[in-house]
Amino acid sequence: MTEAILLVGGKGTRLRPLTVNTPKPMVPAAGVPFLTHQLARARAAGVDHVVMATSYLAEVFEPYFGDGSQLGLHLEYVTEEEPLGTGGAIRNVASRLYSSPDEPVLVFNGDILSGLDIRALVDQHTRAGADVSLHLTRVTDPRAFGLVPTDASGRVAAFLEKPQTPEEIVTDQINAGAYVFTRSVIDTIPAGRPVSVERETFPGLLEAGAHLHGMVDSTYWLDLGTPASFVRGSADLVLGRAPSPAVPGRCGERLILASAQVAGDAKLTGGSVAGAGAEVGAGARIDGSALLDGAVIAPGARIRDSLIGAGARIGADTVLDGAVIGDGAVIGEGNELRGGIRVWCDARIPAGAVRFSPDQ
Predict the structure, then answer these.
(1) Number of other residues whose CB lies within 10 A of the CB of residue 8
(2) Are 25 and 109 in contact (CB under 8 A)?
(3) Biggest alpha carbon distance in the chain?
(4) Given Cys at both, which of 55, 125, 184, 202 links 180, Cβ 3.0 to 4.6 Å?
(5) Are 176 and 135 in contact (CB under 8 A)?
(6) Which one is predicted more confidently, 268 or 147?
């Protein structure tokens, strides 16, 4: 096992305004771009060659990661001129793979934080003689997901759309967004057009009699597609609940990067992060939140379960709860923003202008 494809081309529209200037996989989680955690875990599992399938803001990736040598990897980048979907993106990078037709190729979605045992997934794929193997996870409420039932041996029996009634919930197993393809199978995906592996490739292979195998791994798993889940994922990395060798410091209640400045009586708890150049004023309380590079928090501010964009400024005694503040935004003193409110990049909110919760 030496190769992997990382699907990092999505626009991340559910994460806006965080993704206005930054592609979703490059938004910092626990002090580094989220993609760093995925690459580090892949390297720890024995991967040494990764092809990134890029599209949205594709120019951001290579200047940051370069050839991957600092991570012990060989990285390559392939940019889609037009979005090709998950299957189309996999097929589009096929020419960059070194594997022989019968060797395994890992595929990861660029927005999943997981404790998956990557080696175990590949080993099970090989033992089963599968054409494709899928990481499956169990969820308490599967109604928001497509279902993937398997037989007693782990062979995938069907791919079912999101259930609409209780009777349609035949399993709690869902597609967790990591796969192993036998290399030759990738070449069967149509080239040059959008293809969804979830809706077209996998059901088509199953119908044609291919062997699709599912490995249920119930370790940590989180889809980082929304601001609330992204903030939670960052905090879980800092707290050590989600595994990553790339966290730039000890796991614990807080992660303060070396160039950040935090007042002596300020408190950061719940896996909070103060990014490079961030400033936290006297008496501020930060809980379960991420302050991106250069964010400034004035004295007395109270911030909980929120994400503060790069260079944003939060005024004195302002309260943020479940808020997302875009890059460069300025929130004047004495405001109160709650309930999932999002403030766009470079917006200005005057002192004392907002004193309500959108969910009230």
Answers:
(1) 28
(2) no
(3) 64
(4) 125
(5) yes
(6) 268
Residues of the chain with CATH 2.160.10.10: 253-349
Q: What is the DSSP string of 220-256?
A: -EEE--SHHHHHHHHHHHHHTSS--TT-SS--SSEEE
β-partners of residue 53 are: 7, 78
Q: Where does the pLDDT of residue 360 fall: very low under 50, low under 70, confident under 90, or very high at 90 and above? A: very low
Integer Cα distance of 27 and 202 in angstroms: 30
CA distances from 317 to 185, 207, 281 (A): 57, 60, 10
The SS3 assignment for 333 reads coil
The architecture in CATH of the region 2-223 reads Alpha-Beta Complex (3.90)
Predicted TM-score (pTM) of the model is: 0.90
**Residue intervals in the chain for CATH 3.90.550.10:** 2-223
Tokens read off for 324: 């997302």
Which CATH entry fits the domain spanning 253-349: 2.160.10.10, 3.50.50.60, 3.90.190.20, 2.60.40.200?
2.160.10.10
Peptide bond into 25 cis (omega under 30): no
